[in-house]
Amino acid sequence: MKVLRVLNNNVVLARDEKGQEVILTGRGIGFSSGQGKRVDPELIKKVFVPADGRDPDHLAEALALISEETLQTVITALHEAGIEDRGSTRPTLAVAVADHISGALERAARGIVIDYPLRAEVQTLYATEYAQAQRLLRAINERVTPALDPSEATALALHLVNAGFVSGDLSFTYTMTGVIQQMLAVVRERYGLDVSDASMSAARFITHVRYLFVRIQQHRQLKGQESTIGKGIRQHYPDATRTAQQLATIVELRLGQQLSDDEISYLALHVARMTMDAHGTAT
């Protein structure tokens, strides 16, 4: 591999044998390297391969701001928590978590604890990621001093949720969280429904909406091939369809994206399931 850019003593941007840009980390890897020089394989600790259109330069610059100790702590903790394999070459999650942990450690050293306002929403909407985040935080706290406050699990969970999106922009995850809450509020108010009474169907709805957000980001909404099924859903659940159209309006207002007829139909199906589970009647 040949060096394209040296970020600091421990991070370089290089081109591998396949011609793709990769980020290499390792203690002292950039010390004696220069543009065009071959990288000493013995110095390579970790190879990251940017994907999904991520900018290698931006990721490399972010890595250069993180200490090698913090990065390795996070990589090990992600593995121990069962979130990401130690040999993973995806940089996005490790970089985002390590960057957050760097800041959290600085705050902890100064005795600052952040009360994250989305804690209740994260625990409810992203229960799986919150449980993973708690395991991740325990694994990190076994390796750092001072130990981080349990409240950091909320922020870590949001980073785990965010890892599924192309943009890598945490603000999108905050927006998604608000939109899901707004959607559930509409269903709750329209049908007098306590969402907790329909926990399984509500969980399916939340999962569906999360994947809907991914499809919106990737410009791959359900359209055309599911239209026959979509028409059937709209005919069978007219009231739920009207509710789904209201939910689609929320998405359009918040994200600037109009939903396809089939996406609206599948939202209607999930709304119908929630109301049927709660009341035992068809919608």
TrEMBL record:
Keywords: Repeat
InterPro entries, alphabetized: BglG_antiterminators, CAT_RNA-bd_dom, CAT_RNA-bd_dom_sf, PRD, PRD_sf
Pfam family of the protein (one): CAT_RBD
Domain of life: Bacteria
Gene3D superfamilies for the chain: CAT RNA-binding domain, PRD domain
Native source organism of the sequence: Streptomyces flavalbus
Name of this chain's protein: PRD domain-containing protein
PRD domain location: 61-170, 171-281
